[in-house]
């Protein structure tokens, strides 16, 4: 603790301790303008930096509208399943959360097993399966896998480094024909030297070509940027790249790098969510953008969703005819998210969707309701003319502070043969113990 700075308790939680392989009591505290996590480990109390901007961090907590811990059992709040189809990759990134192996000699998930796992997800009410790796496009049977999962009525997306989509213009069309809905392209920088330091090669041109090839094939695109100090100043250009292709490029995601898996950069290259948002605002990446335009994922009982506000925050834009405007200008997001948090549970998927549209339209200024309805409908259809765009800044639960409150509310999960595993625990050796402890904690709080 810095001399003369008193710690102010934000909340108490529990974390898994990598050193002891057990869960301990912990606290999140404010120290001046910083937020830290304090772990009460029997081997020695320690603190972990969580945020460089306490005021902004706490603002998102106040806006979170989330009940204590999770309002739902862990297995009920999953909306998207991540299916790891290979550990192989055609890149060797110095920052690889998955610590992927070379494509030669890689393991490939059989199509039959992928479809069986997707069927289990469908039975739980999950509506989207995202194929990841490694690099999914090196899987020799990817079209058949997409076709089989899509036949179950699930939306299929892919997370990719984009290299093969950029090199082979026909790949996007072939996967679109198989049922692919969206590709999230890893897009970190326009600078070749920065790309070498982050991804081990200079394939910037292939990334740009990938996005354009996918869009021409009718596939919706998102960009995902892993942010470090090396590319922090490029966020404006990445946003401008995305908005020039909106609304078919519908999500622009900035994730703070996490020193997990393979992370070969110096420790001082790490940034946090609040640093990302401050840079987006300062750079004027979006005209009129302020910190107040960012909101954590809202709590929404009809979708059994109670995402922790520490995970991320997004601003929303409406895009049409080459123009974008902040949604906050004509939608009262504070009122909308408040009403979403108070919505009752609904079992029907159709009625859940209609309820959300009704709430959005009800929070919209009268003269703009038609515009908002067109944008929502266009987003659902993947319309190239009108739709919504989200600019998201987030961070994973790091290995030094596995906060069980955050893990309990995660809406995504790896779809494995023996069940569902939260992404932040995917590569943790003792993940089963953490999940069991998190579920026990949730039950104790709810009883």
Compact overview of the structure:
The protein is 32% helix and 26% strand. The protein is α/β, with parallel strands linked by helices and 447 residues long. It has one domain: TIM Barrel.
SSE order and pairing:
Layout: E1 7-17, E2 22-31, E3 34-39, E4 46-51, H1 54-63, E5 80-84, E6 88-89, E7 95-96, E8 101-102, H2 111-123, E9 128-132, H3 142-150, E10 155-160, H4 163-167, H5 169-178, E11 180-186, H6 192-199, H7 204-216, E12 220-227, H8 235-243, E13 249-256, E14 262-263, H9 273-282, E15 295-296, E16 312-320, E17 323-326, H10 333-341, H11 349-362, H12 369-381, E18 386-395, E19 402-403, H13 404-408, E20 412-416, E21 419-421, H14 431-446
Plain-language structure description:
The protein has 447 residues and is an alpha/beta fold. The protein has one domain (74-395): Aldolase class I (TIM Barrel, Alpha-Beta Barrel), CATH 3.20.20. Helices cover 32% and strands 26% of the residues. It is built from 14 helices and 21 strands. It has helices spanning 54-63, 111-123, 142-150, 163-167, 169-178, 192-199, 204-216, 235-243, 273-282, 333-341, 349-362, 369-381, 404-408, 431-446; strands spanning 7-17, 22-31, 34-39, 46-51, 80-84, 88-89, 95-96, 101-102, 128-132, 155-160, 180-186, 220-227, 249-256, 262-263, 295-296, 312-320, 323-326, 386-395, 402-403, 412-416, 419-421. Strands 5, 9, 10, 11, 12, 13, 15, 16, 17, 18, 20 and 21 form a twelve-stranded mixed β-sheet that branches. Helix 2 packs parallel to helix 3 (142-150), helix 5 packs across helix 7 (204-216) and helix 11 runs antiparallel to helix 12 (369-381). The radius of gyration is 21 Å and the shape is globular.
């Amino acid at each position: 603790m810095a001399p003369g700075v008193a710690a102010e308790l934000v909340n108490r939680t529990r974390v898994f301790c990598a050193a002891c392989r057990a869960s301990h009591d912990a606290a999140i505290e404010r120290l001046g303008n910083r937020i830290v996590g304090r772990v009460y480990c029997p081997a020695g109390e320690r603190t972990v930096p969580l945020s460089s901007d306490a005021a902004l961090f706490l603002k998102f907590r106040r806006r979170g509208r989330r009940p204590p811990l999770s309002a739902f059992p862990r297995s009920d709040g999953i909306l998207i399943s991540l299916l790891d189809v290979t550990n192989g990759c055609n890149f060797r990134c110095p920052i690889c959360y998955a610590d992927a192996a070379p494509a030669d000699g890689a393991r490939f998930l059989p199509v039959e097993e992928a479809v069986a796992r997707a069927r289990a997800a469908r039975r739980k009410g999950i509506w989207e399966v995202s194929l990841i790796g490694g690099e999914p496009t090196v899987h020799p049977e990817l079209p058949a896998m997409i076709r089989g999962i899509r036949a179950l009525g699930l939306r299929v997306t892919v997370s990719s480094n984009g290299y093969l989509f950029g090199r082979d213009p026909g790949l996007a069309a072939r996967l679109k024909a198989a049922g692919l809905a969206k590709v999230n392209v890893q897009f970190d920088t326009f600078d070749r030297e920065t790309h070498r330091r982050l991804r081990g090669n200079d394939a910037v041109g292939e990334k740009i070509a990938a996005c354009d090839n996918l869009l021409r094939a009718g596939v919706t695109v998102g960009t995902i940027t892993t942010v470090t100090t090396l590319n922090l100043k490029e966020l404006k250009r990445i946003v401008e790249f995305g908005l020039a292709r909106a609304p078919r490029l519908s999500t622009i995601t900035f994730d703070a790098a996490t020193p997990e898996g393979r992370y070969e950069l110096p420790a001082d290259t790490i940034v946090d969510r609040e640093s990302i948002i401050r840079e987006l605002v300062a750079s004027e990446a979006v005209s009129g953008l302020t910190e107040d335009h960012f909101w954590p994922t809202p709590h929404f009982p009809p979708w059994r969703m109670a995402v922790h506000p520490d995970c991320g925050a997004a601003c929303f834009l409406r895009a049409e005819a080459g123009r974008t405007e902040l949604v906050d200008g004509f939608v009262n997001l504070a009122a909308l998210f408040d009403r979403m948090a108070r919505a009752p549970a609904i079992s029907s998927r159709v009625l859940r969707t209609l309820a959300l549209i009704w709430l959005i339209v009800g929070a919209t200024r009268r003269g703009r309701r038609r515009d908002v309805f067109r944008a929502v409908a266009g987003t659902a259809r993947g319309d190239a003319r009108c739709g919504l765009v989200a600019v998201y800044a987030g961070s994973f639960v790091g290995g030094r502070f596995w906060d069980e409150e955050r893990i309990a509310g995660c809406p995504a999960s790896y779809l494995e043969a023996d069940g569902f595993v939260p992404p932040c625990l995917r590569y943790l050796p003792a993940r089963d113990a953490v999940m069991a402890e998190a579920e026990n904690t949730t039950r104790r709080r709810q009883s």
